[in-house]
Amino acid sequence: MKGWRPPAPFILLLPAIVVLAAVVIVPLVLSLYSSFTAFRLTQPASLYTLIGFRNYQRILTDIEFWAAFGRTVLLLTIALNLEMLLGLGLAMLVEKATSGQRLLRTIMMFPMMFSPILVGFQFKFMFNDNIGLVNNTLQSLGLSSQAIPWLIDGTLAFIAILVAEIWSSTSVFAILILAGLLAMPKEPIEAARVDGCTPWQTFRYVTWPFIMPFAYIAMTIRSLDVARAYDIVKIMTDGGPAKRTELLWTLISRTAYADARMGVANAMAYVAILLSIVFTAYFFRKLSAARTQIAAEW
Amino acid sequence: MATVSLEKLVKRYGSLEVVHGIDLEVADREFIALVGPSGCGKSTTLRMIAGLEQISGGDLRIGGKVVNDLPPRARNLAMVFQSYALYPHMTVRENMGFSLKIAGMKPEEVAPRVDEAAATLDLTHLLDRRPSQLSGGQRQRVAMGRAIVRDPDVFLFDEPLSNLDAKLRTQMRVEIKKLHAKVQSTVIYVTHDQVEAMTLADRIVIMRDGYIEQVGTPEEVFRRPNSKFVAGFIGSPPMNLKDAEVTDGMLVFANGDRLPLPEKFRDRVSSGQKVTFGLRPDDLYPVGHGIHSGSEADVHKQDLRVLLTEPLGNETLVFSELGGAEWVARMLNPRPLGTGEVLAFCFDLAQAHLFDRESGRSLRGSHGKD
Ligand SMILES: Nc1ncnc2c1ncn2[C@@H]1O[C@H](COP(=O)(O)OP(=O)(O)OP(=O)(O)O)[C@@H](O)[C@H]1O
Ligand SMILES: [Mg+2]
C-alpha cells in the first residue's frame, strides 16, 4: 500500500474546494471563456466558435454600452453622495434623541426590509403621471398645473430612479454612521468645546474624522450595490424610455436574454465587474487610511 | 481679570441632586484646590464652570458676568480632563496646538508655543506620536500641555497628575507652581493628593456629598478644621478621632479610659456632653521623640503599649491602644521599637481638637484662636 497520499490539509479542504469549484469557479471560468466566443443562446454550437477579443472590441466602440456605463457611474456618484449626506444627517438626529432612540433606529431600518422589486413597483406608482402621488400632491398644492411625465422624460425618469434608490438605501449609511457615533468617546468632543470650537468646528475636526471609516464601509457596501443596480430600474422604467435610463445590468441582461447574445453580454459583465472592483478598491484604501488615522483598534 | 463666583450653584441629574447650592468666591489669579472624597461632586462642579454641564440652579459668574448660558468657547478657559480626553486622530503636536489653530493663530506662531510647552512637560521626543501610542502618564502630560499652551482667564484642572509616578508628580507640581506665577491666571484645581493641595493652593475647598465643608488657606484647614470631616480628611496620616464623653473635666472613652479635657475647651463643654476628641499623630509622640508647641502644662503624659510600628526612615509611625481604639503617633528620631513594649507618650493637648459628636462641628468656637 505504498504510493502518493495527498497531504491531510488538502483532503480536509477538498469538500469545500469541490463546492466552490462547482458554484463559483466553473461558472466564472466558463463565462470568461464565453466572452471570447460568438456564443448565442439560440445556437449552442456557437459556444465553440472562438473569436478572440472581438466581443470586447465591439463593446468598446458601442455607444449604447458606454452610455449605460456612464449613466451607471453617474447614478453611483449622485446616489452615494446624497445617501451619505442624508444618512449622516439622519444618524446625527437620531443620536441626539434622548428618548425613543431604539424605536427610531428600528423605524430607520424599515426601507431595508422591502424587496427592491416592491420598492420599484411602489415608486413606479408614486411617479405615475396620471394617478401617482407625486403629481397629485404637486397639483393639489398648486405647484404645478400639468401632469409631469416623470417616468417618460429621460432626465426625470433618472431622477425618479435616484429617489427610489436613495429612499431604499439611505438607512445603510444612517445605521453604520450611527454605530460610529454611538461608539465614539464623548470626552474629545467636550475637550474641543473647551478648546474653543463652534459646533461646526467640533464636527469638522473631531466627530467627522472619527466616523469617516464607518461612512467608507457604507460606501463600499453601497458602491457594490449600485454598480449592480437592476431590480428597481427594471420595474420602474425597464431601461426606457428609448433606453434613456439604461444601466449596465439592464443592458447586459437584455443583451444576454432578449437578444440572446451571451458572448457579448459576458464581455460587458466583465467590464462592469471591473468597475465594481475599482470602486471597492478605492473605498477600501480610503477606509484603511481613515482607520489608521483614528488609530482604530478594529 | 477673571474672578469666578459660584452663587447657590446646584446640579441635578433628573431628580437626583448632586451639588446642593454651593457658594464660592475665587479671586482673580487665585489658586484654589478642590478636594473631597470620590463622588462628592468635584468634577461636576468643574464641568459646570467649564460650561460642559448645564447649571440646574444658581448663578455662575466669570469676571463678574453671569455665564450660565454661555457655551464653553465663550468663557475663555482651559481644562485638563480627568480622563485626558485627547483627540485620538491627532498627533501630540496637533493635540497641543489645536486650540491655537481654532483661535485662528498662524502655524508659525503655534509651533514655538507647542515646542515650549513640550519642553516643559518633557514631551519633545513624543510630538509626532498619536495618543494611542503613549502611556497613561504621557497622555496625562499631553492633556496638561494642551491647556498650558493657551492664555486662558481660568485654568481648570481635574486631577491632572493622578497617573504620574512620584518623581514626575513632584516635578510637575513645581512646573504648575511656576506656570501659575508666570501666566497669572485663576486656577481651580481638583486633586486627591493632600500634598498637591497644601503646596499649590492659596485656598483649599473641601467638599463632601455635594456641599462645601470648609474653605480656607492650607494652614487654616489643617490647624483649625471646622468639622470632624475636615479634620479627618486633611492631614496624613489622618488625625486620631475618638468618641468620648465629658465627665468632671475628663474625657472618658467607651471602655473607661480617660484623658484630661484640654484646657481651652473647659468652658465650651458641659458635663455629660458627647464629643469626639481629635489629636494629630504629630501631637502624640513618645517622650523625647517630638516637640510640643504650647506650654509644658498642656502636655499630658501617659504610658501606652506599642501594637505595631511603621518605620519610614526619618520617622516611625507608632500604633498603640487607648480607650478601646487604635491611635497613631509620630515618632521623630526613631529608635527600633519592639511590639508590646510600653512607652511613655506625650499628648500635646494645646493642639487637640474637640467636635460635637452629633453635628460633627468643632467646639472651638467660630473665631477661636486654637
Ligand atoms: N451623568 C450623571 N448622571 C447621574 N449622576 C451623575 C452623573 N455624573 C455624575 N453623577 C454623580 O454625581 C456625583 C458627583 O460626581 P463627580 O464626578 O463630580 O465626583 P468627583 O468628586 O469628581 O469624584 P472623583 O474624585 O471620583 O472623580 C457622583 O455621585 C456621581 O455618581
Ligand atoms: Mg472627578
Automatic annotation (TrEMBL), chain A:
Q: Which residues cross the membrane?
A: 12-33, 73-94, 106-127, 156-184, 205-224, 267-284
Domain ABC transmembrane type-1 residue range list: 69-283
Signal peptide residue numbers: none
KW Transmembrane helix (keyword) present: yes
Enumerate the subcellular locations listed in this protein's record, separating them with semicolons.
Cell membrane
Q: Is the keyword Iron-sulfur in the record?
A: no
Q: Name one cellular component (GO) term.
A: plasma membrane
Q: How does it sit in the membrane?
A: Multi-pass membrane protein
SUPFAM superfamilies per UniProt: MetI-like
Q: What is its main location?
A: membrane
* BP GO annotations: transmembrane transport
Q: Which keywords, in A-to-Z order, does the entry hold?
A: Cell membrane, Membrane, Transmembrane, Transmembrane helix, Transport
Recorded family membership? Belongs to the binding-protein-dependent transport system permease family.
Name of the protein described by the UniProt record: Carbohydrate ABC transporter membrane protein 1 (CUT1 family)
Lineage of the native species?
Bacteria, Pseudomonadati, Pseudomonadota, Alphaproteobacteria, Hyphomicrobiales
UniProtKB/TrEMBL annotation, chain B:
BP GO terms, sorted:
carbohydrate transport
Q: How does it sit in the membrane?
A: Peripheral membrane protein
Task: Tell me the superkingdom of the source.
Answer: Bacteria
The ABC transporter domain covers which part of the protein? 4-234
Q: Which compartment or compartments is the protein found in?
A: Cell inner membrane
Q: Which Gene3D superfamilies match?
A: 2.40.50.100, Nucleic acid-binding proteins, P-loop containing nucleotide triphosphate hydrolases
Please provide, in alphabetical order, the Gene Ontology terms of the cellular component aspect for this entry.
ATP-binding cassette (ABC) transporter complex, substrate-binding subunit-containing
Please list the GO terms describing molecular function: ABC-type transporter activity; ATP binding; ATP hydrolysis activity
* SMART domains in the record: AAA (SM00382)
Q: Which UniProt keywords apply?
A: ATP-binding, Cell inner membrane, Cell membrane, Membrane, Nucleotide-binding, Transport
Give the NCBIfam families listed for this entry: PRK11650.1
Name of the protein in its database record: Carbohydrate ABC transporter ATP-binding protein (CUT1 family)
Source species: Neorhizobium alkalisoli
Q: What is the lineage of its organism?
A: Bacteria, Pseudomonadati, Pseudomonadota, Alphaproteobacteria, Hyphomicrobiales
